[in-house]
Amino acid sequence: MFILGVYYLINYRLRIKKAADLSKDALYPKIDDEFNSILLPIEWKEMEPLAKNTKSYQYVKWGTLIALLLLLALLWIVLATEWLGSSFFSVVYLFIVIINSIKHRGNLFILSKGIILNGKFYSSNQIKNYQIEKIVRWHELYGLDDRVNNAYKITFKIKKELFPPNYIVVKDSAYLERMILLLDEQGIPGMKEKELANSSVGNFTTKS
């Protein structure tokens, strides 16, 4: 369990670093209005650049080091005491808390040959399709934030991905249409512009 935790933290750190380097060549978003068009789940904050000088990136950078030190301390306590035998679930809980505490803010960058989704790069051939839902009344996201109402939820399905990454929300159709065009140019299947114009809510996927 300790080895898996260390591997996850280091791999996550390297993944964010790679994404930060690749995001410099993103086709979308590039300007402030395009960044502001994307809302991130839970807190519904507008997307920010994935740069090495941002607070979120620095949090992952130094947080990974601190988390590794905490895991080492936890391992030492387990090996030096009988805590594991008497409080197995407490050890597991602390382990999970430490691992999950290092998270970068969500993001979506469209590149020429793939996307960056929540800090991880996926090439075009790794993406099975994308699905779009308009957030109207009775949608699960409707009412969570005024900016989310009547916006668009976009979810990517990734091939051979056991736990698919989270979705993002695009504020209006003008920005979404731009994103669809860029995805279509890569051959990534999804909802077409005519379907978008005529739809009110639901999932749309073209043939793969």
- The total of helices stands at 7
Q: How many E strands? A: 7
Shape, principal axes of CA atoms: elongated
Order of helices and strands: HHEHHHEEEEEEHH
The residue-averaged pLDDT reads 81
How many distinct folded domains?
2
Share of helix, binned: 40-55%
- Terminal-residue CA separation: 38 Å
Strand order of the largest sheet: 1-7-6-5
Supply Rg.
Answer: 20 Å
Protein name: DUF5673 domain-containing protein
Keywords: Membrane, Transmembrane, Transmembrane helix
Transmembrane segments: 59-77, 83-102
Organism: Metabacillus litoralis
Provide the descriptors you would attach to this structure in a database record.
42% helix, single chain, disordered C terminus, elongated, 208 residues, 2 domains, three-stranded antiparallel sheet, alpha+beta, 7 strands
Task: Summarize the helices and strands and which ones pair or pack.
Elements: H1 2-22, H2 32-36, E1 38-39, H3 55-80, H4 83-86, H5 88-100, E2 108-111, E3 114-117, E4 120-123, E5 127-134, E6 152-158, E7 168-170, H6 173-185, H7 193-198
Helix pairs in contact: 1-3, 3-5
Can you give a write-up of this model?
This protein is α+β, with helices and mostly antiparallel strands and 208 residues long. The chain has 2 domains: 2-31 and 41-100, no CATH class; 108-198, no CATH class. The protein contains 7 helices and 7 strands, in the order ααβαααββββββαα. The strands form 2 sheets. It has a 4-stranded antiparallel β-sheet. β3 (114-117) and β4 (120-123) form a beta hairpin. α1 (2-22) runs antiparallel to α3 and α3 packs antiparallel against α5. It is elongated and about 60 Å long. The model is unreliable at 192-208 (pLDDT under 50). This is DUF5673 domain-containing protein. The chain crosses the membrane at residues 59-77, 83-102. It comes from Metabacillus litoralis.
